[in-house]
Design goal:
Blueprint (H helix, E strand, L loop, with lengths): L1 H24 L5 H11 L3 E6 L11 E3 L2 E3 L2 H6 L18 H8 L10 H4 L2 H8 L8 H14 L4 H10 L2 E6 L15 E3 L1 E2 L1 H4 L14 H7 L7 H17 L5 E3 L14 H7 L9 H21 L4 E4 L14 H6 L5 E4 L6 H10 L3 E4 L3 H4 L1 H14 L5 E2 L7 H24 L5 H19 L16 H5 L2
The structure holds zinc ion (ZN).
Length: 468
């Protein structure tokens, strides 16, 4: 009798296990995921990295038969999709149908690619369209709706603040690096130092809005030596702090290796004043190496944490491990390793584990690879405390920002739900971690952001406030 009962019980347990496994096949269908996702959706996010220009400068508008406007093509052109596949250009002055006749085939080989899939939530949630199965008629309507939505900035404001539920957004203004402007109520300025690192000569700066030489002229200063140049940098940093800039940002990983050697000032001084083509590669690298270390010092001096692009860029030389000597030698500088160092997310984890002056920013990572991002969240949470991980959408218009935000909330919720399901984390702790990554960690690292809140501060902020 007992034996029979035991067998029945074992059979039932098997069936239960099978049911659990079936739901684990897509955890996103489970009530557990639903609860964690809802909690993460409810967090008014602090987006630590985006490239949103003032409304009249939103990029990638097309010249169509109905004038210059935002199109469906504009959304893809301003996305990461062209990074992995050809996007049919809009034929100048022509109607939608002419573009779509070819463009509709652009997506056939990218159905599983994250650079394509991250955009789908925007079409689904904002326009009610499943882009995977879009018809020609739906595409035409979608394109017309996009054009209407960009007639003024109401759509953009609503999508970012209400639909994406973003409260504050750190904006990296690589189109005007020394401007410190706040074009939107949610914008937080970032000082992009990429060009300052290479400034051996005024001719290095094609855009006057980026040029410390133009900046100096406006202040009535002359730059004739490296010391003059470093003095002007101090003036720029002082102005950045006065403008409530949150942090520094470097994207040098697109141009060169992240191996920054410690170089004596005399070598940098010898290179200063020369045009790039008058310098050998080793001399130019030495100048940049010196400047990068100098700026890491200024980061501590002005309490502006240092966001550094690591991973996918110029992939030879963008491994975040190359920064470890610099990180060790500058313990007062708060380093933020961007994009989780993709694909070196494990290397980024060990740096975060061993160095307390390091934060990991997962901005762009789910967009690069959803699966790696999910694994990275799980690995990082196992290797280091949960209060040094952040996120950012890293894109340029309403649809892209909504899409990347939703993709990240989903990825983080899935990573956490899997851990809870495996018994590796309590559900209430998972929800707290979700809130830390989406908001509280950025507020703790950039406390000045609290001065920029524009929504009424709710009781939810009590924990973040009490941590200060
Ligand atoms: Zn970026």
């Amino acid at each position: 009798m007992w034996r029979i009962f035991a067998n029945v019980a074992a059979g039932a347990a098997c069936a239960l296990a099978l049911a659990a496994r079936t739901s684990a096949g897509d955890i996103k269908k489970s009530p557990l995921y639903g609860r964690i996702k809802a909690a993460i959706d409810a967090v008014p996010a602090i987006d630590t990295h985006d490239h949103l220009r003032p409304f009249d400068q939103i990029p990638n508008k097309d010249e169509t038969d109905r004038g210059t406007r935002m199109t469906l093509h504009s959304i893809f052109a301003g996305s990461y999709f062209p990074g992995i596949h050809r996007l049919t250009p809009w034929p100048a002055g022509k109607p939608f149908d002419e573009w779509w006749a070819t463009a509709r085939n652009d997506f056939r080989d990218t159905r599983a690619v994250s650079f394509y899939r991250y955009l789908l939530p925007a079409f689904r949630d904002l326009y009610g369209i499943d882009f995977d199965t879009i018809t020609d008629e739906q595409a035409r309507e979608l394109d017309a709706k996009i054009a209407t939505n960009y007639k003024d900035d109401a759509w953009l404001m609503d999508v970012i603040t209400r639909r994406a539920n973003i409260e504050l957004m750190l904006i990296d203004p690589y189109w005007a690096r020394l401007q410190f402007e706040r074009a939107y109520k949610f914008s937080v300025p970032v000082l992009n130092v990429t060009m300052l690192i290479s400034g051996t000569h005024a001719s290095q700066f094609a855009n006057p809005l980026d040029s410390p030489f133009v900046f100096a002229e406006r202040q009535g200063k002359k730059i004739e030596s490296l010391d003059d140049y470093l003095g002007v940098l101090d003036m720029i940093f002082t102005q950045a702090v006065a403008a409530d800039t949150a942090c520094l940002k470097s994207t040098q990983a697109y141009q060169r290796t992240l191996q920054y050697d410690r170089v004596p000032k005399e070598r940098a001084a010898a290179a200063f004043g020369k045009k790039a083509d008058e310098l050998g590669p080793a001399e130019f690298k030495a100048f940049e190496d010196f400047m990068f270390w100098h700026i890491a010092g200024l980061s501590a001096k002005y309490n502006l944490p240092f966001q550094i692009h690591t991973g996918q860029a110029r992939i030879q030389g963008s491994n975040p491990m190359l920064l470890v000597d610099l990180i060790d030698a500058n313990p007062q500088t708060k380093f933020i390793l961007f994009h989780g160092g993709y694909p070196w997310v494990g290397e980024t984890a060990v740096i975060g584990m061993k160095r307390r002056n390091v934060w990991i920013d997962s901005c762009w990572l789910p967009t690069l690879s959803y699966t790696v991002a999910k694994r990275a969240y799980q690995e990082w949470l196992e290797a280091m405390p949960s209060d040094r991980i952040m996120w950012g959408a890293d894109t340029v218009q309403a649809e892209g920002i909504y899409a990347a935000t939703e993709f990240t909330r989903q990825c983080l919720a899935e990573a956490l739900a899997e851990k809870v399901e495996r018994g590796e984390l309590r559900e209430d702790h998972a929800m707290r971690i979700g809130r830390q990554v989406m908001r509280d960690n950025a507020l703790k690292l950039f406390p000045k952001l609290k001065r920029m809140f524009w929504r009424t501060e709710g009781p939810d902020d009590v924990e973040a406030a009490s941590q200060q």
